[in-house]
Write a structure and sequence with these properties.
Among the domains are: about 1-25 and about 60-250, no CATH class; about 370-665, Alkaline Phosphatase, subunit A. Strand 12 (about 695-700) and strand 13 (about 705-710) form a beta hairpin. It is of the alpha/beta class and about 750 residues long. It contains 22 helices and 13 strands.
């Protein structure tokens, strides 16, 4: 008997592994066919680029499905050796009978086995939650929710295959309670209906995780993408079911076609040509199958961990040097090709320094009171002034009408921790010193000169009114450095959802108690930040998150109106009021269905209002692109502060006093994730170059570019980077972005010469 079992085990293993390999081929092929329709529907590119990209995506699909299915096959073989089967229809009856059998001690033991099985399931659930969160947060695209669902599904399936024997060995729960008859697990698992059950269960669990973890309404989920992936799984299962019933000759032809497709896909993936970047962009970004496969390739083949491969169109010209890859910053004139474009940048670029020394008329007050009002998550497009249909900001709109209003101002980052450091220092994120702590946001380094410090040293009494513990010096150290007084009384330990009225009362108390010493007052309203809850006494626009956000913004507007009235009563037109936001928000942007801001550099999450109001500033509305990092140099210029401040932003004095443009026609943004540096990852994750018409974005982890005409396409849904008509525009903007990136880097240390 032993000898017979020994002979059967290798045969069983070979059969199961061969079957799993065939299953992987079929799943990759059928899912890819559905993915083809998805790519063709959403991408406009030259035919050759599409063909190359689609077949490269197919190869990457095989790369991920084959190892996965082989692992599942190994797990099923191990389960078969235990000779236990999972019989779903009889689970309830068998489990009940099993728990009642035997002595009390045996029943307790079986209850312990059940607990062990529950612990294993909970461990998978916890891992799936983290996986969903990491995928969605890390890459921030609408398809990520669906990808997280599929990943969770595959995790569930793999867990069932690999942990079933372990669960059975822990006490026999899977052996007796769930097994009506002896058999082998693979026979049950291999049935198409059971694969479908596991697929549906995984998708439902992942969707539940997203809805619960991120408080996402069902209407905001990317159902089209989810349905596409479910359809891909259904087609794959149907193809698997059909393939098992085809004649042997037909299966042979099908296997040959799959092998040919693999070879064609491999050839396309390895094909290096001028269009390789565009085809790779299709295969890794637009194709869901190719994207998952590329993630697996990077995890296994990327030797220097820079996110690029030397083959498969990756373009890594130095596979062992993390400093050289298509996403690196080119340094002109050093003889090294950092960005792997084939040559060093032949350009002598000097660092882009800010300018804040425009002449100021003597009639302007030397030290006016300054009130900086920042509104958390203030999307400029929700202002009636910019065409929003609802009148949710009447007081702010009225302020804009009698002030200098910048229609196209953009925050330096898509979240508070990525925008405020640049706002208060007027420096690029890559240049700001930050300290490592156990949580983010990281403290701003002591070498940085914040706006409050500059104004304090010039004779101002500096006061900050904080509306949330996030900004407390005990949590975000350094961001409030330079303030003589920090009022944290408006927020409570229980974190009341709408503390705007208390913020206003504290600010009015400071305004009314101001003495002869000039005052710099920073007031921050947090009411429009998530989680969104309908504020009492405000209009009910509806039940969606956008409707509730509008009601919260109406509350902020009311409080800003009260504060403006107090400022007017105290100083008249002598006070300088600056109003802006830390970032925008985009409920109706399909790209931000789950997260409405925080992880990209698109217009909808960066567009914020910027208002300068004072009696000595003539009202006007301006269209030129500006940034929140221009606020500090503008104030320094108006106060006639001496030169020497390390500002990268540009003074807006010419716009404020004369209505003419002072800054260059290009504006750069950075998404610099400081904590990635400590994980040995590239901290400068994304950059963008914005002109008065175009927004060029680069994902530095992949090297991919996106190009949008945001004037005609505000939510930036139509990528022009793949359109050959915009090739010259793309090339010119890429060159300018290279210059600005080099300018925004800390100056390199001079090399020793022999």
């Amino acid at each position: 008997m032993v000898a017979r079992i020994a002979r059967l085990r290798p045969a069983l293993a070979a059969r199961r592994l061969r079957g799993s390999l065939g299953l992987g081929v079929q799943l990759a092929l059928w899912a890819w066919l559905v993915d083809v329709f998805h790519v063709l529907r959403g991408v406009q590119a030259p035919g050759l680029v599409l063909v190359q990209g689609l077949f490269a995506a197919l190869f990457r699909g095989f790369v991920i499905t084959l190892p996965l299915c082989l692992a599942i096959g190994l797990g099923l073989w191990l389960a078969a050796l235990r000779r236990h089967a999972l019989h779903l229809p009889a689970i309830g009856t068998r489990l009940s009978a099993y728990l009642r059998e035997g002595s009390e001690a045996e029943q307790l033991a079986r209850a312990g086995d059940l607990s062990a099985y529950a612990v294993l399931t909970a461990a998978w659930a916890s891992a799936s939650v983290r996986l969903c969160e990491r995928l969605i947060v890390g890459m921030a695209r609408p398809q990520l929710t669906a990808i997280a669902c599929v990943a969770a599904c595959l995790g569930l399936l793999l867990m069932a295959a690999l942990l079933f024997p372990a669960c059975a060995a822990l006490g026999g729960l899977g052996c007796r309670a769930l097994s009506p008859a002896p058999g082998i697990g693979p026979r049950c698992f291999s049935r198409t209906v059971h694969w479908a059950v596991w697929l549906a269960l995984g998708v439902l669990v992942a969707l539940g995780v997203v809805v619960y973890r991120f408080r996402t309404p069902l209407s905001y989920l990317p159902w089209a993408t989810v349905l596409q992936l479910v359809a891909a799984g259904g087609v794959a299962l149907a193809g698997h079911w059909l393939g098992a019933r085809l004649p042997k000759q037909a299966r042979t032809w099908l296997s040959g076609a799959a092998a040919l497709a693999v070879l064609i896909g491999l050839g396309c993936a390895l094909w290096q040509s001028p269009i390789a970047v565009l085809s790779r962009q299709i295969s890794e970004r637009e194709s869901l199958v190719g994207r998952l496969g590329q993630s697996f390739l990077l995890a296994t083949w990327d030797r220097d961990r820079d996110g690029y491969l030397p083959a498969l169109g990756g373009g890594d010209c130095a596979p062992r040097d993390r400093a050289r890859n298509p996403g690196a910053t080119e340094v002109p004139g050093n003889g090294i090709d950092e960005d792997c474009d084939g040559a060093d940048l032949d350009l002598r670029a000097s660092a882009l320094r800010g300018k804040y020394d425009y002449p100021i008329p003597q009639s302007l007050p030397a030290r006016p009171p300054i009130v900086l009002i920042t509104v958390d998550a203030f999307a400029a497009r929700h202002m009636r002034t910019l065409g929003y249909p609802r009148d949710v900001t009447p007081n702010i709109d009225a302020l804009a009408a009698r002030s200098v209003f910048f229609n196209t101002c953009y925050a330096q980052g898509p979240s508070t921790r990525l925008s405020f450091p640049s706002l208060f220092t007027s420096r690029w994120d890559t240049q700001i010193e930050q300290e490592l702590v156990g949580h983010h946001p990281f403290p701003v380094g002591k070498s940085e000169r914040l706006l409050a410090e500059v104004l304090r040293d010039s004779g101002y009494d500096t006061v900050a009114i904080l509306s949330d513990g996030y900004f407390s010096p005990r949590y975000w150290r350094g961001i409030t450095r330079g303030f003589n007084r920090i009022d944290e009384s408006p927020f409570t330990t229980e974190h009341a959802p709408h503390d705007g009225p208390r913020v206003t009362e504290s600010a009015l108390s400071v305004v009314q108690g101001a003495g002869d010493k000039p005052l710099f007052l920073w007031v921050h309203y947090y009411d429009a930040h998530s989680p969104h809850e309908q504020p009492a006494g405000m209009p009910m626009y509806g039940s969606s998150r956008q409707d509730i956000y509008d009601a919260e913004l109406r509350l902020v507007d009311r409080e800003v109106g009260r504060l403006l009235a107090g400022i007017e009563a105290r100083w008249g037109g002598q006070a300088l009021v600056v109003l802006t936001g830390d970032h925008g928000i985009a409920f109706d942007d399909p790209r931000h269905a789950t997260f409405n801001y925080g992880y990209d550099l698109h217009s909808s999450v960066l567009h914020v209002p910027l208002i300068f109001h004072a009696g000595f500033l003539p009202p006007r509305s301006l269209d030129g692109v500006v940034a929140t990092m221009d606020i500090a140099p503008s104030l320094a210029n108006l106060l006639r502060l001496p030169a020497g401040l390390p500002y990268e932003g540009m003074s807006l004095v010419p716009e404020l006093l004369e209505g003419r443009t002072s800054r260059p026609p290009e504006l750069m943004h950075q998404m610099y994730i400081e904590e990635r540096k400590w994980k040995q990852e590239e901290p400068l994750e994304r950059v963008s170059l914005r002109t008065e018409r175009y927004n060029l974005l680069q994902d530095r982890k992949t090297g991919f570019f996106e190009l949008y005409d945001y004037r005609a396409d505000y939510f930036e849904t139509h990528d022009l980077a793949l359109d050959p008509l915009y090739g010259a525009t793309l090339a010119a903007l890429r060159k300018q972005l290279t210059i600005l990136l080099y300018s925004a880097q800390p100056a390199p240390l001079p090399k020793a010469t022999p």
